Fold this sequence. Notes:
There is one protein chain. The chain is mainly alpha-helical. It has one domain (about 80-290): MetI-like fold. The protein contains 13 helices and no strands. The chain has helices at about 15-45, 50-55, 65-100, 105-120, 125-135, 145-170, 170-180, 185-200, 200-215, 220, 230-240, 245-275, 280-290. The longest helix has about 40 residues, at about 65-100.
Amino acid sequence: MSAPTPVLFDELGPRGRRRVRVATGVAAVLIAAVVVAAVLRLHERGQFDAALWAPLLDPRTEEFPLVWQRLGRGAAWTVVLGAAAMVLSLVIGVVIAVARLSLPTAGRIPLIGVVELLRGLPVVVTILLVSVALPAVGWDSGPQWALVIGLTLYNCVIISEILRAGVLAVPRGQVEAGSAVGLTRGQVMRGIQLPQAFRSMLPALISQLVVILKDTALGAVVLTGLDDLARQGLQLRTVLNNGLQTLLVVAVIYIAINLVIGRLAVVLERRLSRSRSTSPEVEEAEQAVRA
């Protein structure tokens, strides 16, 4: 079988490939030079001194257990807050997507207005608005709920648009086949369109969930009273007087959490790919299409 033909660009010839290799080599040399210059500059300013890294890396120091106890508590709070915002964003996003696809035109107009409003607001402004609005209506729930609700309001509409695009990408023939075998509009949506939309848009959904987790760090900047990882890092850098070292460790922890989420997404995607026709509605629709 012949190799697939590139769709978005023409295949490079020998001269083009040579130019790409030269440009890649030059870029690699420049990046290496910048990294070396930065390392030398940090060394000159004493940022590699053992005393600055010891509270974070040396278990023999007195501060080490206290530092990692606080970082562990902050990481746990970050995961809890991020997971809450992820679940709420997914649930509400599915509801918005289904409503926007199912309602008549008159019912979709207010919903579209809400979606566009929330999409247009910066996430920081959304979190601040929620933190001010909740006490104003008599719900003094603390900064945790302000962060979760703010992230949910911003991300649920993004997820709804991702799912709506996935539903619209399902071949029209499958929808008609589902109706032909006697399925209602809701059964077609639940059994045929949504499962395929989740599978096809899973990479985009996972990317948005990772964004939610990373955006929890905004709460440390605009809210007070949080115990998340970013807030613990900001407090520890002041106490230990080693801002660069502490924030580098915090960054590594965030990267590790995001890598775990990405790995779970890969496992989920493989399992979904093995069971592409698990629901009876999809099987009936596929049989109707073949017929």
